[in-house]
Amino acid sequence: MEKTIDLKKNIYELCSQYPEVLDIMKDLGFADISPAMLSTMGRFMTIPKGAAMKKLDLDKIKDEFVKRGYSMIE
Q1: Cα angle 56, 57, 60; round to 5
Q2: How many CB atoms lie within 10 A of CB 21?
Q3: CB 47, CB 8: distance < 8 Å
Q4: pTM for the complete prediction?
Q5: For 29-73, how does the pLDDT look when each residue is reduced to its tens digit (9 = 90+)?
Q6: Which of 40, 46, 52, 68 is 20 to 30 A away from residue 58, measured at CA?
Q7: What does the DSSP assignment read for 43-72?
Q8: Is 16 helix (H, G, I), strand (E, B) or coil?
Protein backbone atom coordinates (compact mmCIF):
# COMPACT_ATOMS: atom_id res chain seq x y z
CA MET A 1 0.00 0.00 0.00
CA GLU A 2 1.35 3.38 -1.00
CA LYS A 3 1.60 6.01 1.70
CA THR A 4 0.27 9.37 0.58
CA ILE A 5 0.46 12.74 2.30
CA ASP A 6 -2.39 15.01 1.24
CA LEU A 7 -1.26 18.55 2.10
CA LYS A 8 -4.90 19.66 2.35
CA LYS A 9 -5.58 17.26 5.24
CA ASN A 10 -4.99 18.47 8.76
CA ILE A 11 -2.14 17.10 10.83
CA TYR A 12 -4.52 15.22 13.12
CA GLU A 13 -5.89 13.26 10.14
CA LEU A 14 -2.42 12.52 8.78
CA CYS A 15 -1.11 11.32 12.15
CA SER A 16 -4.23 9.20 12.65
CA GLN A 17 -3.64 7.56 9.29
CA TYR A 18 0.15 7.26 9.66
CA PRO A 19 1.29 7.54 13.32
CA GLU A 20 4.95 7.84 12.24
CA VAL A 21 4.16 11.26 10.72
CA LEU A 22 4.37 12.74 14.23
CA ASP A 23 8.01 11.65 14.61
CA ILE A 24 8.89 12.75 11.08
CA MET A 25 7.45 16.19 11.77
CA LYS A 26 9.44 16.47 15.01
CA ASP A 27 12.59 15.61 13.04
CA LEU A 28 11.73 18.35 10.53
CA GLY A 29 11.55 21.14 13.09
CA PHE A 30 8.11 20.82 14.62
CA ALA A 31 9.69 20.05 17.99
CA ASP A 32 6.78 21.29 20.10
CA ILE A 33 4.19 19.06 18.47
CA SER A 34 2.76 16.55 20.92
CA PRO A 35 -0.14 14.12 21.06
CA ALA A 36 -2.10 16.68 23.12
CA MET A 37 -1.55 19.36 20.49
CA LEU A 38 -2.86 17.00 17.81
CA SER A 39 -6.24 16.95 19.55
CA THR A 40 -6.51 20.74 19.47
CA MET A 41 -4.40 22.65 16.96
CA GLY A 42 -3.80 19.56 14.86
CA ARG A 43 -7.45 19.47 13.84
CA PHE A 44 -7.15 22.69 11.83
CA MET A 45 -3.41 22.93 11.13
CA THR A 46 -2.05 21.58 7.85
CA ILE A 47 1.60 20.94 7.05
CA PRO A 48 1.82 24.04 4.80
CA LYS A 49 0.24 26.26 7.50
CA GLY A 50 2.58 24.85 10.15
CA ALA A 51 5.61 25.32 7.91
CA ALA A 52 4.62 28.95 7.33
CA MET A 53 4.15 29.56 11.07
CA LYS A 54 7.52 27.97 11.89
CA LYS A 55 9.21 29.60 8.88
CA LEU A 56 10.29 26.19 7.56
CA ASP A 57 10.90 25.44 3.88
CA LEU A 58 7.88 23.48 2.63
CA ASP A 59 9.87 22.01 -0.26
CA LYS A 60 12.39 20.50 2.19
CA ILE A 61 9.53 19.03 4.22
CA LYS A 62 7.97 17.50 1.10
CA ASP A 63 11.37 16.13 -0.02
CA GLU A 64 11.90 14.46 3.36
CA PHE A 65 8.50 12.75 3.22
CA VAL A 66 9.29 11.52 -0.30
CA LYS A 67 12.67 10.19 0.93
CA ARG A 68 10.78 8.26 3.61
CA GLY A 69 8.53 6.58 1.08
CA TYR A 70 5.52 8.89 0.89
CA SER A 71 3.97 10.42 -2.19
CA MET A 72 2.62 13.96 -1.97
CA ILE A 73 -0.75 15.36 -3.02
CA GLU A 74 -1.07 19.13 -3.10
Answers
A1: 120
A2: 22
A3: no
A4: 0.90
A5: 998 888 888 889 999 999 999 999 999 999 999 999 999 999 999
A6: 40
A7: GT-BHHHHHHHHT--HHHHHHHHHHTTEEE
A8: helix
For residue 20, the one-letter residue type is E
Q: Does the structure show a pLDDT above 80 at 19? A: yes
Distance between CA 50 and CA 43 in Å, rounded? 12
CA dist 43 and 30 (Å) reads 16
Residue 72: helix, strand or coil by DSSP? strand
Compute how many other C-beta atoms are within 10 angstroms of the C-beta atom of residue 33. 22
- Report the distance separating Cα 42 and Cα 63, nearest Å: 22
Closest CA to 74 of 59, 64, 53: 59
At residue 26, does pLDDT exceed 90?
Answer: yes
Amino acid occupying residue 44: F
